[in-house]
Fold these 4 entries.
Entry 1:
Amino acid sequence: MATKRGITFGDLHSGHRCGLTPPAWHGKPVKGGLTKHNKWQSLRKSLWNHWVRIINEHGPFDFALYLGDGIDGRGERSGGTELLTTDREEQTDMAVECINQIRLNANKGFSIVGVYGTPYHTGSDGEDWENVIADRAGFSKVGAHEWVDVNGYVFDLKHDVGSSSVPHGRHTAVSREHLWAQLWAERDLIPKANAIIRGHVHYHNYCGGPDWVAMTLPALQGMGSKFGSRRCSGLVDFGAVIWDIDDSGNAKWHSDTVFIKEQKARTIKL
């Protein structure tokens, strides 16, 4: 076996005004037409360019692990006013094109495994639009909770994880996930994992020990949701995490997170 390079990513929220959006939709106005659009168009272009840069700079890839929330959904809580489209078929087309960028810089035998995101975004009415994304993007598997073995190094993948309102508490949720995974593995009910990977919270945080790491991934959605701007105070990270697993199952990883200059707040001068 040779060293394998992979990418872990998620929370694209394609279809949202600041979700990861392919170029064909960069100029699309927000549904409702009540918002100034120039800053969102500029942001979407910037996010896309950073995504393509991450893929080109770190590829070619042998595997990819997708952590869900590929689309933003119908946006019921905001009446759809933050969306480029409420059509989840069209949102899925966006997400698949984003994911397929990885295949443009992939090695022979490339494979991708994913997990379902939150029902509010990807199927609150009982549907699982992640199944459609997985089918169209050629996933090997998509499920609620998956384990992937790469050269003997095991990833434990699930979308949802707890959050924290204080910076020093952000380690707690993923550390708890690791402990529960150990207890389940001791009962021989799940595979013993080396890396616990979660999405959902849109920030990159991690903890670990000599033979394990637990982390939340950065998102591929920029800042700009009404919920986030009006209710939340924590930092948001944009990017992905890159992995190298050698033929003995030893892993090295590093994150590629990006400061999006279009997101910098400015004072109002009176």
Entry 2:
Amino acid sequence: MHRSPTPLRRIATRAPLVLALVILSGVIVSTAAADVPVISYTLSGTKGDNGWYRSSVGIAWVVSGGAATPGTCSSTTVLSDTNGSPQPCEAANGDGKVSVSVTIKIDRVAPLVTTAAPARAPDYHGWYNHPVAFSFSGTDGGSGIASCSQATYGGPDNGSAAVGGSCRDKAGNTGSNAFGLSYDATAPALSKVEVASRAASALVHWQSTSPADTIVVRRSARGNKADPTVFRGAASSFADKKIQRGLEYVYSLQSYDQAGNASKVVSAVALPKVLTLRKTPYTPRAAANPVLRWDAVRGATYYHVQLFRGKKRILAAWPSTNELTLPAAWRWAGHRYKLGPARYRWYVWEGIGKRSFARYRTLGRAAFIVPRR
């Protein structure tokens, strides 16, 4: 008897929920990516140069993904001082652990300007009297010095002047400082230079810019080599008592201030007040109301003096001493005369015996000029 085959039993199965894996070339690739944490951050602060910050820096950490549990970066971090140490952040969940770090450099302090080096030494006794250049240097304990400035001081005049400079660090901070100096580039000036001729001296007067100026007075006699300096000091006058009678002198004055600046040379002529019978290589010009003087003769009781202008005798006198002061004007032989600008000749005799005897011995003659005043 033939039996029909027993039908097959359909077995229904429910596929389990499992993570499917695909093997490709020996690499196992997950069909669903692991949900590891993701870390990001934002920085806030004042940026400087060369990657430095010039203020406190805030780091705002953001951790996301798969119920991550933040580790070292759960909130905003504020940094006030760091020279570049890494700042880390870690986060982890069931799928993995992530670590991130950021390097931040902070320098909030300006450099210190410590030195102003002049290009040369002071010109005179600690003073500068023409422009001088300065180079500045400094120190910085943070990012380090990047550069320092240079400056040239050329005024205004001031005994307590100041020159300023600056230094910049690598973070961009700038520090400045000022350094003192004494500066005077203005030359003094002499004015009202005059010479008053006296019988025994020449009195030189002047005015200078400052009473503290040093005045140098040099003297030269007309027709002779220049004499050495006859005065140096702070004053407004000088009496030269070493002059020779009958000579013209030129006084050359120059003033120097405390910074060594020199005035222009100012000269004044001293005309002789006393005229003598001595021979000179030139005819001297006379000061106002000159004194005619000659060597005394032992035993002489009087002298005879005659004064000529051109060929005309305009004065005769019989002084008892060896000098005669000429007035500005006089009357003689019925005429009025004045000692005006002209060339004059004068003669001197020694009177022998009584004046009524009219006996004379010639002592000499000389000439002088009265210049226009």
Entry 3:
Amino acid sequence: MAFVLPPLPYAPDALAPHLSAETLALHHGKHHQSYVDKLNALIDDPSTTNHDLEAVILDAGDKALFNNAAQHWNHSFYWEGMTPGGGGGPSDAVADAIQRDFGSFDRFSEDLHSQASTHFGSGWAWLVHDGSKLRITTTHDADLPLLHSQKALLTIDVWEHAYYVDYRNQRPAYVTAFLDGLVNWAFVAKNLAEV
């Protein structure tokens, strides 16, 4: 066995008009596949699979191994955090937690939008549980909440390849489209239930 690119959890054109089939073909089929291919070339144990990915990330002493393993994890998580007809607001436990920790859904959305839109350079904007409450954080390059003892609940990929085909240099417009039309709140709820 080896690491494998997980299939998208929806058809390649299912996120339109927010993200085009062309963006998904390039982002999933080229960028994410490249991380998987490089990871397989770097790993010492060819029996290692996606089930072992977090252990590989935590144990990686080599920067290239870490970068490719973490980017494989980050992207796999990102795809699950979107769904056709998504966005809007959450319900139940997620809505309650957002109200408790941010004061309102509007404040949460504004904070996540701001941090994702203004993050300098390549990276990720995250909704995480830090062990006591929900927080919004950003990471650079391949960094991820796992390294900071945080539980990832949702992420927005803010590397330019995530949005450039559809939004050019307008990252804030991409973030708005993600929040308003793509967030998979059921996925967020599943992750929160694991805390």
Entry 4:
Amino acid sequence: MNSEVTSVKSIVGKKSWKDSLKDICEVARISLHNLVSTNTPPLPACYAREFERAAILLGKEKVLEMVIEDVEKQARHFRSTILKAKNRIKDARTILQKFDKDARRDVQEIEAQFVFLAKELSKEIRFAQFLKSAEALKEGSTKFVDNLSNVIEQISKQEMILGSLAKQIYEDPLTETFNRRAWDKDLQDLAESLKLDSDRIFTLAIVDLDKFKEINDTYGHLVGDAVLKQFARLLKDHFENTGTVYRYGGDEFAVIAPGFTLQETVNLLELFRSKLKKSVFVTQGGEVKIRLTSSIGVAQWEEGFSIKDVIQAADKKLYSAKKAGRDCIKF
């Protein structure tokens, strides 16, 4: 207990422990109020996301340092290790493939040279014996090339295994969209690229399914999961060539559209919203047919903004869309 208090004091700095508790309680109260008012499903991930959002909106990011565990740090380390290994294997595979190609070419050249020399020296040595030696050399070279091909094949298999591990880290298993880990990583990469090129632009959208809790309450979570999968597929297909789709949490999804202005992204989302209203989500072998609408908040990055500024702006616009009666876009 003493070590925990010391750790908290080191995070809080000059602020007293009592003040820190007040901050935590205030953030918890606001986050619980938002969860209840928006009918958010009672899932741990939803509570964690809403707590983080409330802390950022209230300007109390230090609270997060006291309550968030080190799991994500470990995940980032694991991801980094896998990606480094994958890149090294990729480099090794490229080198071995080139060596394989050069070895096959060299074997062909050696064969031609031996045949030519054998014919030229046939008067001095027995041509049959020379060809036999050449054949033995050819056989040994062929075995070497075959072994090299086997090595390359094994490397390919290892590369596939690493790709599968990376997919498990970055992909949401239900909707097959990218997950929050991928979201955090991509935004971090985007922030680094903006430091190098401030002329780049991107737009960020948060998409929320309207009254999704009623679907779970009426039909059960199996139907709700099936609807989420179909909705995610529709959203991914719509942004296939223009943006990246993430499961932001629960029934919320996010889209990053690099290179697109605010108005261009809004136009794309209006087309999606229109497509969604015409779609029918069929589950339970056709026995259940459901129609959906969505509320969407959109924000564009501008020079001088941080990534958190853009997320916070899109989040506020999403709440504006809900308060305006849902089934609309605010930007």
